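TA notes, week 10

Several of you asked for a full example with nothing omitted. So below is the full record: C-alpha cells for the whole chain, then the designed sequence directly under it. When grading your own attempts, check the secondary structure regions first.
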C-alpha cells in the first residue's frame, strides 16, 4: 500500500474528499490527519483483530487514567479490505518527545494488572517476519530472506526460555519516544497496536538498541533509565531480546523495498551488519 492507494481508501471511508488530509506516517499503517481526527489505515484485512484490540485498549487506558490517545469511534471499519480506525487528534506538540518523557508512562503501564475482557497476546516480536519478507517479494536477495528466517528460528526459542527480572504483564511493545506526544498537558502515549502481555523487559530493550544502533545520545538514555529506575542492560537476557528485535527490525524494512530504493539500501545495510556480527553499525531511517 503506497500513499496513493492509502488516499483512495481514505476517500472511500468518507474522509479524503476535501484534499486537506495530511499524511503523518506510512509504515505498517497509513496515518492521516483530517480536521480534528486522525485516520489510521491498516495494510491488509488480517490486521482487523489488532485494530479492534487497539480501540478496546484505548478505552481501558482511559479508565485507568493513563494519558494516551482516545478513539473517536469504538469499532474499526473495514474499507475495501483495509481496517480503518478513527482517533481524536491531539493538540500541537509543545516540543519533541524525549526518552525521559517515555519512562514515567512505562512505569505506570508496567504497574497495571491485565485488562478484563481484552485478551492480550504475547509480544510476538518475530511474528511479523514472514509477512514482511513475503511483502518484500523479489525486491530483496533470497539469501538475505533465508538468513533472517534462520535468525528468527534461533532467537524465538531463546527468548521464550528467558527468566525475567521484572514481573511480566501488560507492555506497550514499541516503546520509543516517537510513540509519545508532548502536548500542553504533558506526555501522551500513542500507537497502542503492539500492546501485549509479556516480559516488561521488551519495553526497555528498545531504547538500549536505539542507543547502540540509531544514534540515541547516551546521556538521553541515562536520563531514561534514571527516570524508570533500572537499566535493562544489567539483565543477562538483554542480548537475546536485542537480537530478536534486530531481526524483526530488518524484516520490517524489507516490506518497503519494492517501492522505496532507500528502504532497500537500508535493509541491505542492516542485514550486512548482522551477518558481520557488528553490534554498533549505525542504522538509519529511510
Amino acid at each position: 500500500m503506497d500513499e496513493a492507494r492509502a488516499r483512495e481508501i481514505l476517500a472511500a471511508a468518507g474522509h479524503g474528499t476535501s484534499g486537506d488530509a495530511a499524511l503523518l506516517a506510512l509504515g505498517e499503517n497509513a496515518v492521516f490527519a483530517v480536521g480534528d481526527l486522525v485516520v489510521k489505515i491498516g495494510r491488509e484485512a488480517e490486521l482487523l483483530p489488532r485494530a479492534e484490540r487497539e480501540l478496546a485498549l484505548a478505552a481501558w487506558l482511559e479508565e485507568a487514567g493513563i494519558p494516551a490517545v482516545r478513539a473517536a469511534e469504538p469499532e474499526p471499519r473495514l474499507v475495501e479490505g483495509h481496517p480503518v480506525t478513527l482517533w481524536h487528534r491531539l493538540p500541537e506538540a509543545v516540543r519533541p518527545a524525549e526518552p525521559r518523557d517515555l519512562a514515567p508512562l512505562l512505569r505506570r503501564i508496567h504497574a497495571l494488572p491485565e485488562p478484563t475482557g481484552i485478551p492480550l497476546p504475547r509480544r510476538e516480536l518475530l511474528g511479523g517476519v514472514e509477512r514482511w519478507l513475503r511483502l518484500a517479494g523479489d525486491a530483496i536477495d533470497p539469501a538475505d530472506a533465508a538468513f533472517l528466517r534462520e535468525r528468527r528460528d534461533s532467537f524465538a526459542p531463546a527468548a521464550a526460555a528467558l527468566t525475567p527480572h521484572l514481573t511480566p504483564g501488560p507492555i506497550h511493545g514499541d516503546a520509543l519516544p516517537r510513540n509519545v506526544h508532548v502536548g500542553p498537558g504533558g506526555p501522551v502515549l500513542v500507537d497502542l497496536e503492539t500492546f501485549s502481555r509479556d516480559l516488561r523487559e521488551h519495553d526497555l530493550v528498545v531504547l538500549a538498541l536505539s542507543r547502540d544502533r540509531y544514534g540515541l545520545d547516551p546521556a538521553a538514555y541515562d536520563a531514561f533509565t534514571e527516570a524508570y529506575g533500572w537499566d535493562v542492560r544489567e539483565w543477562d537476557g538483554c542480548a537475546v531480546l536485542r537480537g530478536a528485535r534486530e531481526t524483526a527490525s530488518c524484516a520490517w524494512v524489507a516490506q518497503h523495498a519494492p517501492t522505496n530504493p532507500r528502504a532497500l539500501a537500508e535493509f541491505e545495510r542492516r542485514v550486512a551488519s548482522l551477518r558481520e556480527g557488528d553490534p554498533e553499525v549505525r542504522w538509519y531511517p529511510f
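The mean pLDDT is 94. Use that as a sanity check on your answer.
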